[in-house]
Amino acid sequence: MKKLVSRRQRVLRARHVQHSQAVVETMRARDEADAIASNARRLAKVRDELFRSQPMTDGATFAAHRELAARLESAGRQLDGALYDARRRIDEKEARRVVAHREREIAERLRDKAHQAHEDWMERRIAALPRYRRMQKGTAE
């Protein structure tokens, strides 16, 4: 019976580690998505400020600014795709975290159930001893 309790305890420790890892992975994915979103905002801000900074004096400057704006716009679209993928990864990691949490709770309940079964078994075993044996063990009522 003690083996069952110790096995359940080992499973619970493993489930706890899995849950902790899932939480860390979720937080890491959120941080990555936040960084991508921050980069996208900064890129949009630079693009918006590009034409406000100074008046255009000649066509070459205007063409250079326009080329830079097109490149910034292209980079912004790429970041939007990366942000979409990052949010999708967050959802996947969050689903894994929920599953790990559920498995940890199940392992806790199984451990508690095994512990209670062990306690009940010990009580039945002590109750089955003859009265004089219980007095020798110091558990007489």
Describe the structure in your own words.
The protein contains 3 helices and no strands. With 141 residues, the protein is an all-alpha fold. α1 (2-50) packs antiparallel against α2. The longest helix is centred in the middle third of the chain and has 70 residues, at 59-128. It is rod-shaped. The mean pLDDT is 87.
Question: What would you say about this model in short?
Answer:
With 141 residues, the chain is an all-alpha fold.
Strand-pairing-aware structural class? mainly alpha
The biggest beta sheet is recorded as: none
Rg, Å, rounded:
32 Å
Elements, N to C (H/E): HHH
Uncertain stretches: none
**Could you tell me the number of beta strands?**
0
Helix content: over 70%
CATH architecture: Orthogonal Bundle
Rounded to the nearest angstrom, the distance between the terminal CA atoms is 25 Å
CATH class: Mainly Alpha
Q: Could you say how many structural domains there are in total?
A: 1
- How large a portion of the residues is in β-strands, by DSSP E? under 5%
Q: How would you state the average pLDDT, rounded?
A: 87
CATH topology: the name is: Helix Hairpins
What general form does the structure show? rod-shaped
Work out the helix count. Answer: 3
